[in-house]
């Protein structure tokens, strides 16, 4: 199972930057996860052309916040994946979000716009960064999670959105 992972797209419409990424990288994934800050429900509709799971972010519209939970746990190919946006300072963010889940194999999160892909306390912490929003680290990224014999994450850098 191959999962496309996004967060912090901060878009009102899918044409700006997201459609080319979707067409080039996400057409072949089995599932899409978005960790919040879509800004507009149009982005959710666009991503829902594939099986989709998402949570709300702090910058999302009321319409988005009413349609998505703050956090959730999904089961994919025998793995439990926590999904949350995050909040507050980037300092200590991973500790805060890790405390929100029990008995998960991975936590997918956003908020900081900084990609992360590492294991802490036996849990894969995975932040895809931002593929179309303001980048804290000067690059635009999204992620791929592969669920097979192991759970493996990859951060993929793309050209800046146009």
Structure description:
- The chain has helices spanning 18-26, 41-47, 62-67, 93-98; strands spanning 2-6, 31-34, 52-54, 71-76, 79-84, 106-108, 116-120, 123-127, 140-147, 151-158.
- With 162 residues, the chain is α/β, with parallel strands linked by helices.
- It has a single domain, classed as Purple Acid Phosphatase, chain A, domain 2 (4-Layer Sandwich).
- The chain has a 5-stranded mixed beta sheet, with helices on one face.
- The radius of gyration is 14 Å and the shape is globular.
- The N and C termini lie far apart (30 Å).
- The model has no long low-confidence stretch (mean pLDDT 94).
Characteristics of this structure?
162 residues, alpha/beta, Purple Acid Phosphatase, chain A, domain 2, 5-stranded mixed sheet, 4 helices, 10 strands, 33% strand, globular
Give a brief description.
It is built from 4 helices and 10 strands; from the N terminus they run βαβαβαββαβββββ. It has helices spanning 18-26, 41-47, 62-67, 93-98; strands at residues 2-6, 31-34, 52-54, 71-76, 79-84, 106-108, 116-120, 123-127, 140-147, 151-158.
